[in-house]
Amino acid sequence: MTYSGDAHLAALLKNDGVEKDLASVTELVDGVLAAANGDTRADWFALIGPNLSPETKQALLALRDARKGAFCNAADGFDAKARIDCLRKYLAARGVDGFIVPRADEYQGEYVPARAERLTWLTGFTGSAGTAVVMLENAAIFVDGRYTIQVRQQVNGDIYQYRHLVNEPAVGWIYDHIEAGQKLAYDPWLHTVAHAEQLREACAGAGAELVAIDPNPIDALWQNQPAQPLAPARPHLLEHAGQSSADKRAAIARALETLECDAAVISAPDSLAWLLNIRGGDVPQTPLMLGYAIIDQSGNVDLFADERKFAPDTRDWIAKDATLRHPGELAGALRGLGNGSVRLDEATASDWLRMQLGEAGATVRIGRDPIAIPKAIKNKVELEGSRKAHKRDGEKIIRYFAWLEHAAADGSLDEMTAADKLLSLRQEDPLFRDSSFTTIPGSGPNGAICHYRCIPETNRKLQPGEIFLIDSGGQYIDGTTDITRTTIIGTPSDEMRDRFTRVLKGHIALATAKFPAGTTGQQLDTLARKPLWDVGLDFDHGTGHGVGSYLGVHEGPQRISKGPNKIALKPGMVLSNEPGYYKEGEYGIRIENLIAVREIDAPAGAELPMLGFETLTFSPIERRLIDASLLDDGELQWLNDYHARVYAIYADELDETHRSWLQKATAPMTR
Asked: Does residue 557 have a cis bond before it (omega within 30 degrees)?
């Protein structure tokens, strides 16, 4: 069995004048392990040759230690202590004192291929955001507010200190725990330029050094690491894209001219997908083709992606918009930009890209991806596609909750079965391609875990008297959906109704907001929190995230949250509206619709153009959890109008059984 580190060792041996192919290197390392029978390093090196460089010796020793690690046999299962012990041996052999393990791939995406799940492999944590820092004597794992409960369930607290990714960032922990003269290693492919600089400053402030390492130590140690994905690429047709690649490339070329940049490196896979009207399947539940592109001021594009992803007809189709090149040519292409000014995306460009351009002498300009805002502003075709996708999706949601009311009544239904049923309904749609993320079916205390992941070990029954929260979405060719509904199995408590109604009040406040052009999501976030703040409550996640058009269910740069955000909301942007409340160990509540920013008629005397939201999601909101006495007249009117529209949209399309259920679920409420 080969390790990623074997290829690295083969290259080092070749530099030392020892010609070994990958297979013979694997045989060599295994043979050395069997022959050494002790710790006399001279015996190891003598088996290869007398003139090995220090780097080659370090690599050989590190691979020896990897082979000796008990975890290297997949049959041994997960052993967090064995894995971190083996990582530490590897780091010591490479002459470094620590290593940073982000939950990231080369493209900084939320959803990553199996090969990039290095944080999960090392720690057991399966969340979509997190970082571990492993020093030779201590370690910590950093997660955001969505995962503060989950991380304690999945990661051994005797090995890792738990830290909040935002409130207690890794750079602060590193500064406090690294010693002068020590070296902290990082994989420059897995960190943005800005984050690498923060790490560099933290190390320097403590008298230590941040050093790039190759290969990634996890890759060197991970036996049976999945290969790079090779899902087929496919065209995203004009009838769904709404704008040709030629028009998009011309617009981005004009933007580069305005920015005084000769070229831009497109490192965000969703930007690449938008620019070239192409979709793929390289990561779970988001139709992305992983690769890089370089676009210049003339609108010419070089696409760096494995040609095996392109069927002959797709290759012919893409040829009119881009020159397809092997990924291995990227470094050379970057060096070819050495005399120019090159834009790198502040959110997704890896420090490796900066290093290549810097060494070539290019002027590197870090800033927002020039594609980000045009992609976020959906055109008329994309918006209409989203409305149609949501309409079809909503019909499945109605049928689902009508089924759930009976299926969960006796307490025999479990979370996994509940999630599978919703997926089976969505799969009836011929335009459905996948879920837009793994469904979150949180019953009772599991609902208090914001991004709960249901696995056999956590799967529980939907019990009478408990709240059930289900967050789900679909990837349809014409649009991406994301909806959360919270229901009650049986009878709710007064506290449940109070908390649910306060979440609903926040949801309505955002849905009905009117704001001047230029307003950011940060400025609107308070609207959704005030009803909870009034009684000393809050939720530890953003109120809204951007959503792509048959792309990422989480799309930037627009968002609605407490955190700093200078992106003004513009007509055509699609976001979620999802305030919530979570009582640890008991229940979770969230109400989520997708909304689109739109222009509205300004009131008489207005001095500024005004914007508001169009609601895209139509599905009943659980009436049994609403305390109508907490709603003011305007909120009650919004709720009844919303439910009246839900009934009007679907009544004629449902059979008598489902229409009768919908009529009760959307009946007007009074105080």
From this structure: yes
**pLDDT number for residue 5:** 59
The domain tally of the chain equals 4
- What does the alpha-carbon distance between residue 47 and residue 247 come to, in Å, rounded to a whole number? 61
DSSP 137: S
The Cα-based distances of 618 to 50, 480, 576 in angstroms read: 73, 14, 13
CA-based nearest residue to 532, from 541, 523, 522, 520:
541
Judgement on whether residues 425 and 482 belong to the same structural domain of the protein: yes
- Give residues with Cβ within 8 angstroms of 125, minimum separation 6: 103, 119, 132, 141, 143, 147, 150, 151, 154, 155
Q: What is the per-residue pLDDT for 48?
A: 55
Q: With respect to residue 604, please indicate whether it lies within any of the assigned structural domains.
A: yes
Packing angle of the helix pair 633-650, 656-665 (nearest 10 deg) = 170
CA-closest candidate to residue 163, choices 139, 182, 184, 179: 139
Distance of alpha carbon 137 from alpha carbon 297, whole angstroms: 50
Q: DSSP letter for 568, please.
A: B
Closest CA relative to residue 444, chosen from 591, 592, 582: 582
CA distance 90 to 204: 24
Task: Tell me if 192 is assigned to some domain.
Answer: yes
Give the residue from 254, 258, 274, 264 showing the smallest Cα distance to 353.
264
Domain of 330 in residue numbering reads as: 234-369
pTM over 0.70: yes
- Write down which residue in 68, 94, 113 finishes a domain: 68
Residues 364 and 390 in one domain: no
Query: Are 54 and 85 members of one domain?
Result: no
- For residue 72, the model assigns a pLDDT of 37
Q: Is residue 441 part of a domain?
A: yes
* Cross-strand bridge partners of residue 590: 580
Q: pLDDT for 154-163, tens place per residue? A: 999 999 999 9
Residue 425 lies in a domain: yes
pLDDT for 457 beyond 70? yes
**Tens-place pLDDT, residues 362-393:** 999 999 999 999 999 999 999 999 999 999 99
**Is the predicted pLDDT of residue 458 greater than 60, yes or no?**
yes
**331 pairs with which residues across the strands?**
none
Smallest CA-to-CA distance from 21 within 3, 7, 5 is with 7
Place of tokens 């490339």: 249
What b/e string do you get for 547-572 counting C-beta neighbours within 10 Å, with b at 16 or more?
bbbbbbbbbbbbbbbbeebebbbebb
Q: Judge whether 639 and 669 are in contact, CB under 8 Å.
A: yes
CB atoms within 10 A of CB 360: 18
Q: Picking from 51-55, 193-197, 231-235, which range would have the lowest pLDDT averaged per residue?
A: 51-55
- What is the per-residue pLDDT across 5-29, written as a single tens digit (0 to 9) for each? 566 667 777 777 776 665 566 666 6
Averaged confidence pLDDT in the chain: 91
Beta-carbon contacts of residue 314 (< 8 Å; ≥ 6 apart): 232, 233, 234, 235
Which CATH number do you get for residue 116? 3.40.350.10
* 361 and 432 inside one domain: no
Q: Which two tokens stand for residue 152?
A: 């304690």
| Paired tokens of 543 | 């109120």
Residue-wise pLDDT tens digits, 231-284: 999 999 999 999 999 999 999 999 999 999 999 999 999 999 999 999 999 998
In the three-class reduction of DSSP (H, G, I as helix; E, B as strand; rest coil), residue 283 is classed as strand
The answer, yes or no, to whether residue 328 has pLDDT greater than 70, is yes
Q: Region 575-580: what's the mean pLDDT?
A: 98
Same domain, 557 and 533: yes
Task: Using a pLDDT cut of 70, give the percent of the chain over it.
Answer: 90
Distance, CA of 204 to CA of 185 (rounded, Å):
13
Residue type, 644: A
